[in-house]
Amino acid sequence: MTDLAPPAPGMLEDLRRRFFASPLQALVSLLSLGLIALVGWKLLNWALLSAVFDPSQGAEACHRAAGACWSVIAARWRIILFGLYPYEEQWRSALACVAVVAMTVLSCIPAFWTGRRIAAIWLAGTTVFYVLMKGGVLGLSYVGEESWGGLALTLFIFVATCLIGFPLSIVLALLRRSELPWISRTTGLIIDAVRSLPLISILFTFAIVLPFALPHWLQGDKLYRVIVGSALFFAAYQAEIVRGGMQGVAHGQGEAAMALGLSYWQRVSRILLPQAMRNALPATINQFVISFKETSLVVIVGFFEIIASGNAAYGTGEWRFAYAEVYTFIAFIYFVFVFSLSRYGAFLERRMSVGER
């Protein structure tokens, strides 16, 4: 007769074993708990209990208060979210942001995971965004790219970077795995050269230096040059991620596909890439998260994205002291987008059982 397994310890017993197993461990646990409670109370008091929310009270009320001055957000939220976009047309920028979010959400629903549906969603979403932001058609007044700013510009740069960079990364990964040495080595040299440079230097080169080396008809707008540079940087890193996923596919599967008479493109599209993308999913989600946060670097080359808009919100008038509140608000916006993307990545990993064998 086998012995019965011992009962699982209760919650209190588990806490005692983890944090109060010895007098020294108990002391450290109590001190840590007290420190966390103190910091939590300070943050709660600063952010909510002693904060000023009413913009009608002005900056003077914030100077007298002991907490945060959220009045600056209520008074300057348009500048933070829309930047230099014309005031009377900011509803278009808001709708453009909604279009991008809706496009992204629809792309994440499994029912739309076919090539035609994804392509239709991204084409429609990008067209709606561009028409709303730029105008010049359907009775909308024209707004040049130099007047774009805030959250809409951040989302546009991120979406355009991923839309161009992701297919390019797959092409680069396949070329680096080519059986022709001159193709694979040249592609590897390009990838390693781009990855060895900081993104700031690439953005600066495409925005400032490149126009001196190109004819006028080929220069294009600075915004699109920056997007191309950002997409190239994204593609170089993502290509190595995709190539790593390809290396995780058993070589015998390719040989079996060849034995069945499948062509090269059939082997790549039906066998290699689906498994490679599954293997590379965690690193791919991480690359998307990094790319979204790196959109803030475009402020270096003169774009009025959400960080620059936040600087303008507190840098003029009576709100110069309220920089902490403005940056906290911007950090919350980044957190919402990045955390949502991370959670969706975790959902995909569970759905595809990534890492399970």
Characterization of this structure:
- The chain has 357 residues and is mostly helical.
- The chain has a domain at 69-85 and 143-352: Orthogonal Bundle (MetI-like fold).
- It has helices spanning 11-19, 23-49, 58-64, 71-82, 90-107, 115-134, 150-176, 181-195, 199-213, 216-219, 222-247, 251-259, 264-279, 281-294, 306-315, 323-352.
- Helix 4 (71-82) crosses helix 15 (306-315) and helix 9 (199-213) crosses helix 11.
- The model has no long low-confidence stretch (mean pLDDT 85).
- This is Inner membrane amino-acid ABC transporter permease protein YhdY.
- One of its GO terms (molecular function) is transmembrane transporter activity.
- Keywords: Cell membrane, Membrane, Transmembrane, Transmembrane helix, Transport.
SSE inventory with pairings:
Blueprint: H1 11-19, H2 23-49, H3 58-64, H4 71-82, H5 90-107, H6 115-134, H7 150-176, H8 181-195, H9 199-213, H10 216-219, H11 222-247, H12 251-259, H13 264-279, H14 281-294, H15 306-315, H16 323-352
Residues in β-strands, percent? under 5%
Level-1 CATH class name of the domain at 69-85 and 143-352 = Mainly Alpha
- Helix percent reads over 70%
Order of helices and strands: HHHHHHHHHHHHHHHH
CATH architecture tag of the domain at 69-85 and 143-352: Orthogonal Bundle
Per the CATH scheme, the topology name of the domain at 69-85 and 143-352 is MetI-like fold
Using DSSP, what is the number of strands? Answer: 0
Shape: globular
| CATH superfamily placement of the domain at 69-85 and 143-352 | MetI-like
> Structural class, from helix and strand content?
mainly alpha
Q: Give average pLDDT, whole number.
A: 85
Low-confidence stretches: none
Number of helices: 16
